[in-house]
Amino acid sequence: MPTSPAAFLIGIAILIIVVWDAFEVIILPRRVTRRFRLSRLFYKSLWTLWRFCARLIPARKVRESAFSIFGPISLLILVAVWAVGLVLSFGLMQYGAGSALNVAGMTPSFWTDAYLSGTTFFTLGLGDVVPRSGMARALVVVEGGLGFGFLAGVIGYLPFIYGSFSKREVSISLLDSRAGTPPTAGELLRRHSYPHGQEALRELLKEWELWCAELMESHLSYPVLAFFRSQHDNQSWIASLTAILDSCALIMVGIEGACERQAELTFAIARHAVVDLSQVFNTSPKELSTDRLSPAAVQHIRDVLAQHGLKLHDDAAADQRLTDLRRMYEPYIFALATYLNQSLPPWIPPKKGKDNWQTTAWGKTAGLVESQAAVAVDDHF
User: Fold this and answer.
1) C-alpha of 280 from chain center
2) Residue 355: helix, strand or coil by DSSP?
3) What's the CA gap between 316 and 100, in Å, rounded?
4) C-alpha to C-alpha distances, 82 to 23, 29, 54, 377, nearest whole angstrom
5) Which of helix, strand or coil describes residue 312?
6) Is a pLDDT exceeding 90 seen at residue 203?
7) pLDDT digits (tens, 9 = 90+) for 307-320
8) Do residues 304 and 186 touch, judged by C-beta distance below 8 A?
9) Do residues 90 and 121 touch, judged by C-beta distance below 8 A?
10) CA 277 centroid distance within chain
């Protein structure tokens, strides 16, 4: 067959785009700011379609289940897109080089080149199509090595993603008994109002300072982690991060005897993570549709904390300081939550409810025991 330089060059272009994109996603441990990326276009298109379809589901639990499988399934689809792109690129190069193949009983065509490319990439080695020129043999050798390296990279990539997800969720699960479900700033501070509770709160904020740094590094390098949802539909990394920022803001405004310095450090890295992640997903700051913290809610938080021995400064300067701090992160995290179809938690629970650890699906008998135990624990808190 005659050569086709155009097909060969198109194959090279597809190869470069796919290999570079896979390198940036799997191996390169830093944020990529380049506008055009195959994986960025892939996730933007697929997530827009997925979110649109999932929102049509009326049942909340079914809808949340649909959102929860997007992260894992998108990884598999992305790997498949890469594989198809690489197979297609080498098929085009074989075709552009003149389809120099030995084929028993049939005339070589583009689909024969694509078939050879597929069997070579996945290291099948069937031998029914054999290259007969130096260029064709060189392409087969290069593709065989690339296919082996690609599969090895994917095998190492997936466990790392799930390891990072699991590490993120451990702290979110631990926050359940410390800040309620969903976690709120008012509940977090209330539950640390016991003797020596401020020291425990300081240690908690220190742990979350590290958590926020790890979240920023892992989710900037591997943005797909942001689509992975928590085990419970009333928990999320967005809600937990918001609760920690809210708590730090209240402490920084002024709770007498609290850990202001640690709150400042945790607030700084948490706000840094929120802003950087909003840049990754191109979610510009967005004003909240409703005020999360009305003046009445602020007063309610002051009253609740005062009942438990925590006095929040009550003056115009404190109110303005709290407003300024909220403006530093709320528009960014609200835009992220809207894009990921998640909700922000309130500042304080609107009514008393059960934490996730206090609930079960095993019927009324177990529920009675749980209720009695929950009352005892709530009395302790």
Assistant:
1) 11
2) coil
3) 81
4) 11, 19, 26, 52
5) strand
6) yes
7) 888 888 888 888 88
8) yes
9) yes
10) 10
